[in-house]
Amino acid sequence: MGVIAARHGLDTASLEPFAGGSDVVWACGDRVVKLTDPRCSWQLAAEADWLERLAGRTSLATPRLIDMGELEGWPYLVLSLLPGRALGEFWPALPYDERRRLAADIGNFIAELHGVDPSDAPRTWPDFWTDCRERAPVRDLGDPRLPDWARPLAEEVGSFLEAEGPLDAQRHVCLHTELLDQHLFARERAGRVELCGVLDFADGRVGPAEYDFPPLADFVFRGEGDLLRTCLEAYGRPGVELNHGLARRLLAWGLSHRFGRLQRMLAAVAPSRPRTLDELATLLFGLD
Q: Where is the chain membrane-spanning (predicted)?
């Protein structure tokens, strides 16, 4: 990492690794170096494209692309360092009213993102979605983390998805696809926590708007369905649409999501033990 920092005139003495994530990411003063496996080079190229495409287009800051290159075949990006910290560092200690306010702010941001014109963005959805739907019915069957009582739910995934239909016959928009508590950034200002940025667009793509919402239920709201309702209302979904039918559809999106995992959804609604996926939709999304 020191070689990359020196190559771009960065202060090598300030290099500090970030914990977690699937990439090698180091801070270097007010810059970030993100290095990834050559087999995933397409993701860094996609992220660079999305960061340039979205710069200044939403109320939340996104990292600015400074430069990009390779080190012994390993691709990397040099980005600006976002202000603030991951929302997940604040969330557990926030009172309910603050979480609800932030849920509305997240909904407003998603509306801004989905409002960006996608007409000149790469279109990869058809093949991507076909692969997701083929994997979804069998992905959780062999998950060793899934408790025995939940095995029937994994076996139900295929019939549940079939009952919900194709899902993606709707408006296609600019998607982040991984709106997690570690990708949304916040900071304290005037005594309260405010959203200030969003990062990691490596899996950004153009696709149906509803694909962006299930990760919020898993990683941010974690079974607080009223917060998802607040988010969706701020996004612009009419209250009449916020019903059990939408909850089932969002669960179908979540089960089909590239990074969706039944085990994580069940953890979000613990200690409840849903007997069917229909019950899980109620517990996780709370739109009845």
A: none
**Which pTM was predicted?**
0.92
> CA–CA distance from 228 to each of 36, 233, 242, 250 (Å)?
33, 9, 10, 11
> Of 26-30, 89-93, 191-195, 241-245, where does mean pLDDT reach its minimum?
26-30
Check residue 21 and give its pLDDT: 63
Radius of gyration of the chain (CA): 19
Q: Tell me the three state secondary structure of residue 234.
A: helix
161-178: average pLDDT: 93
CA distance linking residue 90 with residue 86, whole number of Å: 8
How many domains, the chain? 2
**Domain boundary residue among 58, 80, 102?**
80
Q: HEC profile for 13-54?
A: HHEEECCCCCCEEEEECCEEEEECCHHHHHHHHHHHHHHHHH
Distance CA 108, CA 58 (A): 10
Choose the final residue of a domain: 22, 45, 80. Answer: 80
